Amino acid sequence: MTLTGPIKIKSKAVAQEFLDSFDSFLFDCDGVLWLGSHLLPSIKETLKLLTDLGKKLIFVTNNSTKSRAAYTKKFAGFGIEVSEDQIFTSGYASAVYVRDFLKLQPGKDKVWVFGESGISEELSLMGYESLGGGDPRLDETFDFKTSPFLVNGLDPDVHCVVAGLDTKVNYHRLAVSLQYLQKEDSVHFVGTNVDSTFPQKGFIFPGAGSTIASLACSSGRTPVYCGKPNINMLNTIVSAKNLDKSKCCMVGDRLNTDIRFGVEGSLGGTLLVLTGIETEERALEEDGDHPQPKYYAEKLGDVYELTSS
Ligand SMILES: O=C(O)[C@H](O)[C@H](O)COP(=O)(O)O
Ligand SMILES: [Mg+2]
């Protein structure tokens, strides 16, 4: 970023300068690589260009609905080969927090999940039994007199609620999650991410932050959020991939998660793309609400299109 503010990547020279400045790229996914099942323009070509240049590619998503393994299949569906150890999700970061910070005992302590398989699968890989989540009994209309999660009492071995994006959110899931959160002395509250909205092709939908806020409001508790911009997530990635932070660039579509993650994590640089949540006006505003990106571009694919022109 110059004294005049963020640098727009809109020429071959600036695109080449951008490429030459970093040896590792951390890519956000929703709004950067794709919008749901819609791959954004020139993404495959851009990732291949970076790979051919010997750059390290890492994918860092706040989307907790899929596990790291499931994300490798999503990439493969687009014809992009990515290994599981290149992918970090907010669901994985939350499971690491449960294991390494809360130190819950696998096989003994259980987790109530308000969210999808991307959370429960990562917890299961670490040996934790999770309840709730995609359990089809939670799809039933809620009745406190008959809910199987209440009539026999809460599970006394649950010592943490992990809440994330749940596209099947309903009153049943909210009501039972709240019962566990009311056990404040014995049940921790973890949120996967703060994203208020979720970008789809042609739409902006409610994000994890919005549904988790419902539980925060009803319980009067504030969760520990483990996804971007949490510095523990960055430190996990930097040590796992042996990165030189000064040569890393965070590429994202949201200022208060992706760009904050890169700036507060002291990475070498950040690139905001305008294919997701943010606008050029927001990218340029010097608002204390969020850090400014070093670079910005209409889309990530411009890096390929400009340097190969
Ligand atoms: O609502 C959410 O969880 C987020 O909007 C979404 O999943 C963000 O994913 P990311 O842009 O970090 O890949
Ligand atoms: Mg995004």
From TrEMBL:
- State its cofactor: Mg(2+)
* Amino-acid positions noted as binding Mg(2+) in the UniProt annotation, renumbered to this chain: 28, 30, 253
- GO molecular-function terms, A-Z: alkaline phosphatase activity; metal ion binding; phosphoglycolate phosphatase activity
Give the keywords, sorted.
Hydrolase, Magnesium, Metal-binding
Asked if the Swiss-Prot or TrEMBL record annotates the protein with the keyword Iron, the reply is no
Q: Where is the active site?
A: 28 (nucleophile), 30 (proton donor)
Give me the residues that bind substrate, please. 228
Any Gene Ontology CC annotation: cytoplasm
Q: What class of enzyme is it?
A: hydrolase
Q: Reply yes or no: does the keyword Coiled coil apply.
A: no
Show the catalytic activity: 4-nitrophenyl phosphate + H2O = 4-nitrophenol + phosphate + H(+)
Q: What is this protein called?
A: 4-nitrophenylphosphatase
* Source organism per UniProt: Zygotorulaspora mrakii (Zygosaccharomyces mrakii)
